[in-house]
Amino acid sequence: MAGSSQGRTVAWLGVLVASCIVASGEVHGQEASGTLVDSSTDRLEVSQPSRERVRPDDTRFWQAADTHGGVMAAVSDSVRLLSLQHAFRVSLSSKTRGELGGPFLKDYGSSVRMPHTWGDGDGWVINYLGHPSQGATSGWVWLQNEAGAERQTLGRSRRYWTSRGRALAWSAVYSTQFEIGPYSEASIGNVGLRPETTGWTDYVMTPVGGLAMIVAEDAIDQHLVRWLERHTNNEPLRAIYRSFMTPNRAMANVAGGRWPWHRTTRDLGERWPRKSATLSQGKGDDSIRNSP
């Protein structure tokens, strides 16, 4: 019996890995040289891989940053993100693995139900931090594939808020699919088979809380991460700043086949912010000295 359960677990993990591979090649297959694997191989061939200099506009692995893939690329990246999430669920949750057996269609159909309460039995951290984090990550998946969205800076501009509004809509669709879709908690692990495990909190907090986290990460990147980068030329340290201070954006980068610290607007090795600040200060001092 234990062997049968282990066999089903291995089979499910195999399906998830295959889904990642298919999703990786579906949209980006023509530019396969831009995958993480190929990029990793290229970087192993040089002594200081992180010191490679490229124009900021060309930092996207499989295509130029301004020619984003659109809806189909967002779907592809979302499938990869879903596969990563389900792989973690199957690997780490014995409860999920225990529900993999039984008649698939019957259990899946019984697991899809309309919530009648706000809570779903999960704790505060999962509902009000974990699910918004998922919403932010899936929202960033959309922003990375909408032309010009990553270049918008936090402010009152209409273009910024409309792009973030579309990210909210995408994360709402992603969240619904994650809960009850064909590639969901309901189909993999039969979450919802018991009525007390469903609640509106997941459907509401994932996109709404996700939008709040996206805006927060925009502010952190714009005001804190950039400030820290101006005070160091250490590229690994810059990568750590970006990856750990904006973790949802970093996860979306991975799902999109990019390094966690990737930014469309600036290269990891840029030196100009610090230089420009020094030059500006020097010009200001000269103008003071030369003033009558």
Question: Distance N terminus to C terminus?
Answer: 91 Å
Largest sheet: none
Instruction: Calculate the mean pLDDT score and round it.
Output: 75
Instruction: Write down the secondary-structure element order.
Output: HHHHHHHHHHH
Sheet/helix structural class:
mainly alpha
Anisotropy-based shape: elongated
Calculate Rg over CA atoms.
Answer: 22 Å
Percent of residues in helices comes to 55-70%
- Report the uncertain regions: 1-67, 273-289
Number of helices: 11
Strand content: under 5%
How many β-strand runs? Answer: 0
Region (Disordered): 31-52, 270-292
Biased composition (Basic and acidic residues): 40-52, 283-292
Give the arrangement of secondary structure elements.
Elements: H1 2-28, H2 36-44, H3 70-92, H4 94-98, H5 104-111, H6 124-145, H7 158-180, H8 200-230, H9 235-245, H10 247-255, H11 272-290
Descriptors:
disordered N terminus; mainly alpha; 292 residues; elongated
Overview of this structure, please?
Residues 40-52, 283-292 have a biased composition (Basic and acidic residues). Residues 31-52, 270-292 are annotated as: Disordered. This protein is mainly alpha-helical and 292 residues long. It has a domain at 13-27 and 69-214. It has 11 helices and no strands. It has helices at residues 2-28, 36-44, 70-92, 94-98, 104-111, 124-145, 158-180, 200-230, 235-245, 247-255, 272-290. Helix 6 (124-145) packs across helix 8 and helix 8 (200-230) packs antiparallel against helix 9. It is elongated, with a radius of gyration of 22 Å. Mean pLDDT is 75; it is low at 1-67 and 273-289.
